[in-house]
Every structure is written in structure tokens, then in C-alpha cells.
Amino acid sequence: MKKILSFVFFTLSFIISKAQLKGCPDPAANNYNSLATVNDGSCTYNSVTLNPKLKYNLNTVINESSGLIWWKKLFWTHDDSGGQPVIYGMNATTNTIQRTVVIKNATNVDWEDIAQDNGFIYVGDFGNNANGNRTNLKIYRISKTNVNTGDSVQAGIINFSYSDQTDFSAKGNNNTNFDCEALIAYGDSLYLFSKDWIDLKTRLYRLPKKPGTYKAVKLAELDVQGLITGADVLPTQRAIVLSGYNSTLSPFLYLLYDFSGNHFFSANKRKVLLNESLTQTEGISAKTTTQFFTTNERFSKLGITTPARLEQFDVSALLNPYYSKLTSANTSFATNNIKTSTEQHKWAIVTKRSNALQVHILSSLNRNVILNIYDSKGMLVIKKNIAGSFTSVDISSLANSVYIAKLLSTNNQLSQKFIKE
């Protein structure tokens, strides 16, 4: 009997290992494995350098641009420490400032990045390089609706400290691992990427999106051999781009993609050099899935001046191989999992409304109904018991992507694809 059980266990283990083959699934990598189904973070890449395309020199009002997002056909930015508590909307093709929005209850101690989700803009006042001992770190959250309708807004405030910082003695200028200049909004959380002056790593922290006072929880760290200064995320593509520079102000991008959940450092990681020097790149934004834009602060020392600029980079050659495979995988997942018929739909209706799924149970014969929502990789992200004939399920915590909603009852099942935008 023991021999039979051992054989069965070995056979099941073999089947599972065959179904879940770890490796590098990125066609752009040196060690690409077309059979790999689980990305184990082992991809390696050739060194590559991108050439920037100058869009324009920034308006002198924002010579210390320190963050960047693309929204409502404008690039939005802000000044560094000591600037006005203002976000500026810049024209996409000229350096004209089209919008100036004041955050009434804010002070610009050291604003370092700007991020967004569907409903809000987040401005990070968390620069901490002077002594590494700030106790007033915060993120201002402003409503996009209010920005649309006025030039003066009130912000909700997210106050925080780092969960792993215990020493608040002054460390001197640029001598701390508790500086931060990079922020993204992803799913139901905010994520911070630290600027580590001492060990040249970046550490990943998570915060809630809602106003309040919190500890930023450390999740992971990555040896980037440089100083991270900006971030943006493409939620549907599960891709993040970081900007940074080294000790000689040679800038770079860092691409993180094909991750699961918030394990941003566990999948593909690619450092991309930029063909520039003496450039303090600070803000970065994705205008499309392959067109990234950066801003840099004005630099002037020893008779050398680098003006503040908006520049464009094309990363299609680097990311399109991954995007192509991602699209294929999503199509395959949808085809294999959406098997509904007209008869099945008669017992229930699932309708997407903004940040909710509305579930209507049409037949009283269907009891003990459960709603499962799966992401594009087949991972369960929401499970909800459905009681009564109508239930609204909140999906605001989900990242923008493609999902499968599956209803299960004692008598029937129904699967339906939806897109969270």
C-alpha cells in the first residue's frame, strides 16, 4: 500500500511540476524558455542604451521638476523642495503651462513624485535626503474631479513613517537609506521605492490609499546600483518603470514586468542606460505602453549647465516581445474559461458598473451562490458569497486589467469576462 501511495504521490508531483515549469518566459531575454509557465525572475538581458528625443526645455517656473504623470492630454508636474504647493499641467508639444492648481492645505517641504489612479492624484512630500530624520513625511491626495473643475483644491493627507526606521538622529546630507522619490498607485495601495544613498538599493514599501496615519510596510529590496528618483505603472500590462541616476549623474531606467500581485522585484528586471551625462532625471511617465517621458532638474556647476527638459524614450523593442506573449496568454485564458450558454445566463446576470459588479440572481432555485473573480493569470483575487436576488460587489481594489467573474451555485455555473478600467 505504501508503495502505491508513493507512486501516486510521485506521479502527481511530476504532473504538477510539468504543468508549472519555472524559468524565463520573456522572448526578449537571453535565456528565454518558451516552455516556462512560471516566471522565476531568472531572465538575463544584453546591455542596452537608449537615445533620448528632446521634446522641449521646461518653462523656467519648473526648473526643479521632480515628478511626472500623463493625464487629460497634459503632462502634470511639480517643483522640488521649497517650491509652491502647486501642480502644473504642461502642454504635450510646447513648454506652455496650461493649468496651475494650488493645493490649499499643503506645504512643499520636499515634494518628490506624483502618481495617479482613476479617481485621485497623489503628491509625495517625502524627500528626506537632508538628514534622513524627517518625522513629517506625507502624501497629499487630491480628487481628479476637483482638479477638473477648479484651480484650488483641498487635499486628504496620508501621514506615514517607515516600519523599519528606528534611528531619527541627523545623518548629514545624502547619507541615509530613508529617502524616497518614487511613488505609484496600484490596486488598493500606494507603493514607494526608496532612494538609498548608502547602499544604492531601492526598497519597496506599501501604504493604504486613504487619508490617515500609517507605518509604511517594507516588502522587498532590489540592488539597482543607483539612486531611484521616479516611477510609473502600467497596470493592465503589469509593468513598472523606474527612473534614476548614478553618482556621476548618468541616468537610467529600470523596467520591472510580468510580476504577480505586488511582487514587483520577483519577475523580469532590466536596467536600461540612457545616452546622457550630467542629467539629474527625476520624473517619469508612460504616455503609451511603449512611449515613456522623463523630466530632469536644471543642473549648473563648474561652468556646465544642463537645462530642465522633457524627453521621450521609445521602449517598444524592449517590451513588445513581452506584450505580444501577454496578449496571447490573456486570449488563451479567456477562451479556456468562458464557457457559458444562453441557458446558463438565464439563471443570473452579471453587470459591470464603474467600480462594482452587480449580480442579479433570477431563479430562486439557485442557492449558496459564490462569486469568484480571477485575474488574467488565473489567480483568485476576490471571493464573495452572494445573498439574495441582488448584490453589488466592490472591485475598486483591483488593478486595471482583464478579469473573469465566475458564479457558482448548487445547480449552475456562469463565467463572464470583464475589463476593469
Topology:
Elements: H1 2-19, E1 22-23, E2 38-39, E3 49-50, E4 53-57, E5 69-71, E6 74-77, E7 86-90, E8 97-103, E9 111-116, E10 120-125, E11 138-143, H2 144-149, E12 152-153, E13 156-162, E14 179-186, E15 189-195, E16 201-208, E17 212-223, E18 227-234, E19 239-245, E20 251-257, E21 268-274, E22 280-286, E23 291-297, E24 299-301, E25 304-306, E26 309-314, H3 316-337, H4 342-345, E27 348-353, E28 356-361, E29 369-374, E30 380-386, E31 390-394, E32 401-408, E33 413-420
Parallel strand pairs: 1-2, 3-21, 8-12, 13-17
Antiparallel strand pairs: 4-26, 5-6, 6-7, 7-8, 9-10, 10-11, 11-13, 14-15, 15-16, 16-17, 18-19, 19-20, 20-21, 22-23, 23-26, 24-25, 27-28, 28-31, 29-30, 29-32, 32-33
Q: Your description of this structure?
A:
- This protein has helices at 2-19, 144-149, 316-337, 342-345, and strands at 22-23, 38-39, 49-50, 53-57, 69-71, 74-77, 86-90, 97-103, 111-116, 120-125, 138-143, 152-153, 156-162, 179-186, 189-195, 201-208, 212-223, 227-234, 239-245, 251-257, 268-274, 280-286, 291-297, 299-301, 304-306, 309-314, 348-353, 356-361, 369-374, 380-386, 390-394, 401-408, 413-420.
- By secondary structure, it is mainly β.
- It folds into 3 domains: 1-39, no CATH class; 47-327, Tachylectin-2, Chain A; 340-420, Immunoglobulin-like, CATH 2.60.40.
- The strands form 8 sheets. Strands 9-10-11-13-17-16-15-14 form an 8-stranded mixed sheet. Strands 3-21-20-19-18 form a 5-stranded mixed sheet, with no helix packed on it.
- The longest helix is centred in the last third of the chain and has 22 residues, at 316-337.
- It is globular, with a radius of gyration of 24 Å.
- The model is unreliable at 7-18 and 331-345 (pLDDT under 50).
